[in-house]
Each structure stands twice: as C-alpha cells, then as structure tokens.
Amino acid sequence: KESCALLSRVMPPEVLPRLFNSNAWETGIADTHPDVTVLFAQVADFSERSSRFADSEVVELLNRLFQAFDNLSNNKNHGVFKVETVGEVYVVASGLPNFCAEHAQNIVQFGLRLLEEVRPFTWPDDVPVRLRVGAHSGPVVAGVIGLKLPRYRLFGDTVNTASRMQSTATPGTLQISAPTMTRLPVGMFSCVDLGERQIKGKGRLRTYTVEVLTGHDPAPSPLSARRRRPPRVRRRNPSVPEVLDAPAPASPSEQWAPTAVLDSPRRFEREMINHFS
After folding, report:
1. Radius of gyration for the alpha carbons in the chain, expressed in angstroms and rounded
2. Burial level of 91, CB count in 10 A (0-12/13-18/19+)?
3. What is the pLDDT of residues 245-263, one digit of tens each?
C-alpha cells in the first residue's frame, strides 16, 4: 500500500496497474497521444539571480513556489497533469493520459493562473520572481522510463516546441504557438500576434502572447462551430524591430497597433454574417 501511495504521487492513476505487470517492464510502457497541449514554466533569470544567494535560500524559494503550483495542478477542475519539474522548470500537460477536447483552453487558463500565482513571491532581496511561460499543441508519446526511480515522461517534437515557446517568451508573459491558438475557443482570450519569429531548431514560427482571460462563455455559436476560427488578435506594429534571440520586457517606446479584439462569440457571429453576406 505504501508503494502504491508513493507511485500515485509521480504516476498517472491509469498507468499504475500496468506497472505491476512484469511483462510491462520488459516490453516498455509507452502510449501515443495524438493531440495534447504541453506547457513549460521557468523562473526567469534563475541562474543569474540564484548565484547571489545561499543554496538553502534558493531551494526554499523553489519549494514554496512549486508547492503553490502543485496546489493548482492538483485541482481537477483545471484539467492538467503535472509531468515533472526539472531544476527551475515546471512542466504540465492537458489531454493525457485521458483525452480532453479542451486541452489547449485548460493549459492557457493554467498558464495565466501561474502568472498570477507567482506575483506574491520575491527573491531574498525583495526583487519580484518572474516566470516565462510557453505552450504548444500536437502529438506526444508518453511512457515510463527506467527501473530505478522510474518517471512518467513525454517525448516528441511537441515537447521540444513547447520548451522553445517558453525560452523565447518575455518574462511575465505566456507565449503560445499557432497550433495552440487555433484550438482555443472563439472570444475567450485576448492575444497579441507576434508574427513569425526565428525559433532555434524550429525555423520561423508564428507565435502569440495571451494577455487576459475575458471571462466570456467559451461555447461556440452554431456559426462559429461551422467556420472554426481562432480568437481575433491584435497585431504588433511592424515598425517595431523584433528581438529574436533574447526577448526583453516591452519598453514605453514599443507600442502595439490598436485593433479591435472580439469580445464575445456573438460579436464574432455578427462579423462573420456581415463578411459573407
């Protein structure tokens, strides 16, 4: 019972019965999930900031921070599964081990919650802790790796791209890929189109920053269900140069081109009717 209780804290409940099958260790435990969303959240400037303090202080800070994140991920209403923590990086996914059609929505909502949750946290010198958060959607393979200290891990290009979304995000923001954007409910989120960016190892990818949760009913109208489109986004002013390798916080001189944001599925439906009439 104690072994089961311990494993249940690091493995999905759906995988546990298979761990006690001797053949499973020989053949391996690996499942393909065709459509999930993966999120990476990293403490920004961690290496530089942590070098200024005692190791015990850094560990204590990370422990409190990740316990707060665990309390969020343990809430079944959020629909996410904590995959692992690697150093100062927190990784979750939605859509596995059981498929969930709202996996992109769950992850974006969770990412915004993380940005809110980190606000009270500060370094020992009272400098606010900031996160870089990134997410990407697509297929993954999930499996149990190793005999000693076995872990449930995710593999595939989706995981790598989600990590790149995080590493190129501006501190304090949630950056998502185009595939994740197209899976979001119409009118539920307000986003900024960052255009195509050169992402290391991936080429040029269109990315978006999710700014706020509008709070509108995410259920699509009949028209939007027939013609599924992502939320309307604000596009960046092309006169502002793009920093690809080392994104920095926006300065007052960097402005975004003001355009309308769809604030409800009903408004989206009216615009679609006007467009095609």
Report:
1. 20
2. buried
3. 434 444 333 333 333 344 4
